[in-house]
Amino acid sequence: MSSFNRVILMGNLTRDPELRYIPSGMAVSEIGIAVNDKRKNAKGEWIEETTFVDVTLWGRTAEVANEYLSKGSPIFIEGRLKLDSWETDGQKRSKLRVVGERMQMIGGRGGGGGQGQRGGGGRPAQNYDDSESGPSSGGGFSDGDFEQPAPRAAPAGGPPADDIPF
Question: Which CATH number fits domain 7-145: 1.10.357.10, 1.20.1290.10, 3.40.30.10, 2.40.50.140?
């Protein structure tokens, strides 16, 4: 039987990112996200529920999150669920978390929450992708992913592309 493990979340950071490096030199950042949901209860009243989710980011995505995001920053995360299990003092413990593979900062500089020393929301709706994220891969993105699009050429015999009203 096949399976599918994909998570898409949009919310706000509950704390500043915690960046560290593993012995191989790969960056890893732990962030927390609060995701709000509004729904009607059995009485027809609107109630708001908040879900707190721990997310792990790897590679360049982790470094970008640490540089541009702070508590309160709006963020969009796409990734997969992972169950961590360990034993402490003879008790088995487990925790479900998200391994973030793509991150998009929502809003522009200084906008949308998170006005900490890192500059708030960062770049407008910028997408960061670690398609092979994790401790065993290089992951990340190339500088070409963030180039501005080239200006459109003017149609033959028409006005320059910058003068087109739409």
Answer: 2.40.50.140
